[in-house]
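Problem: given the chain below (271 residues), write out its structure.
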Amino acid sequence: MYDPGGINLKPSDASHSQMKNDMSGAGAVLAAMTALREVGCRSRVTAYLMCTDNMPSGSAVQLGDVLVTRNGTTVEVMNTDAEGRLVMCDALALCVEDGVDAIVDIATLTGACLRALGTEVARVLGNSPRLVDLVRSAGEATDEPVWELPLIRRYRSQLDSTVADMTNLGGPYAGSITAGLYLEHFVDGTPGCTSTSPGRRRSRPAPGGCRRGRPDSVRDCWWSWRRASTPGSHEPGDADPGDAAAGGARAVALALRTAGPAFLSLFLVAP
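Solution.
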């Protein structure tokens, strides 16, 4: 769960000292799973937490290695510090094998997102507009804003390899988009989106003590799902002071009541 970069060792700077935060995606997914019963989720949800350290050692992954992933795709390692996607791709393959309706992955992937959007906004990419809209609405309702970046197909060539099906790293630009294109390869057409917030994990408490990087937006998706799919449940505008997640999910609940539940089973993936 600690990421010093592997053979591509990170500089000894303040960012490196905070790499214990690189488990923020897995932490958010674990927190969401603990809240499912509380919010009355009636969908089948499975979480994969792909947890590993990325330490340099005699047995560490090396530059130029070609890895065979679970679905048979071969990946040439161009940078050992792009390790999260190397473990996430096997979880995505497991999701596809299980025939899920939708996949959401949450990760601190990548630093390019921090440079593009700063510490107050997470990025989301996906192949399903409906799923992306659900995540975006939940973020708006819970003060966890996300900004959609495009999956620009022309950038896929940055992942080409001469010795494998693809590499684990794109070019010097559009790092968040090429990371999304890498992950998309493993969902095999299943509706999916990836939410990335390396900046949110580093942001300081706002004036008044508002916490940042909390998993409320994920948790509130489930609360809104309950309201949208349970006969006789509260209307989106009703107050429900007995549940801390109720107020933040009204926008998502309203959207789901209009469109109906989009997915019956959903997998959360995190490195």
